[in-house]
Amino acid sequence: MSQLIVPITSDFEINLHNFMMLRGISHETEAIIIAVKESVERAMQLDTTPSLETILEQVAVEKKRLTLIYQDKVFLAIVPREDVDVIKKLTHAVKNSNNNTKTLTTLDLENALLEVIKQNTPQVFYQNKVFLAVAPIEDAEMVEQLEDSIDNANANDALKEEGSISLDEFRKELGL
Fold this sequence. Notes:
Number of helices: 7
Order of helices and strands: HHHEEHEHEEHH
CATH topology of the largest domain: Gyrase A, domain 2
Strand order of the largest sheet: 1-2-5-4-3
Number of domains: 2
Strand content: 15-25%
Structural class: alpha+beta
CATH class of the largest domain: Alpha Beta
């Protein structure tokens, strides 16, 4: 077993002592091993957030609609390119978007999102196999319209699923 020789600061000693007291650990070596192990586990959990490219690929492959907030500044409504009816609704929500529709590569996407932030105007984009409607997060009305377009399409799909019942039937089951 190898040894590690590290200069110890007073802050480190205080933090180590507090950690040992909180955990009921009597040996410094054991406390350091546990603290490092837990730090690595936390860091690995933080790194599990998929990249934007991964999310777009997932939407394309799974053929599902998705909404998300990017960097706390931009709202994205993402749909598979085949979802023509929803694309029309999203495009309609973003006024005059026909002039602004762009085809992007993955490298351009992040710059395009930054441009939406800078210009504070919604845009629509095709990127490989997905369509994106993008709006600044401050534009609450536009964000709501984009969310409603996705939510309504999802609700319509759910109504088409086998085994769905009408509202009247549901109320009857509940005795209302």
